[in-house]
């Protein structure tokens, strides 16, 4: 059973409009290494995992990635709140405004829409978990890049929280990988 608590996993309280940062941060929603891609990947990989521990871990992290997508959406919404069409156009978001107004739309920082092609599933548990380890490192690095692009403490606070969660997810995927290796080794017949 999944229980949705009607609050963000970590508070997002951005007080100043910053269209430029919204354009950059949106990649963590709809980019190839963003939270939506991670959630869809993990929640679908769980079905081919051979151990209960690995299945449970992918379910837990996959649902947490949905919470991160919600945080990113809140950040982008707050950063765009009150932006005029002219401001959006000046920031390179004229096409975003044309199709979506000030709504949050999953895309990367270049405006390329999210696609299911970003979901990384091969069906081999070892390969998929290595993919997940790499995905968490790419997300961590992207959060570090975003932190370097702003001086706003409200933005940095939320980004730091998300970055730290990527580190924890990486560690947990390492544990799941060892669990799957142990399971596969126990099934070898010589």
From TrEMBL:
Keywords: Calcium, Capsid protein, Manganese, Metal-binding, Virion. SUPFAM superfamilies: Ferritin-like (SSF47240). It holds the Pfam family Mn_catalase. Gene3D superfamilies: 1.20.1260.10. Binds 1 Ca(2+) ion per subunit. Binds 2 manganese ions per subunit. Its cofactor is Ca(2+); Mn(2+). Mn(2+) binds at residues 35, 65, 68, 136, 169. One of its GO terms (molecular function) is metal ion binding. InterPro entries: Ferritin-like, Ferritin-like_SF, Mn_catalase, Mn_catalase_dom. Ca(2+) binds at residue 60. Belongs to the manganese catalase family. This is Spore coat protein JC. It comes from Tepidibacter formicigenes DSM 15518.
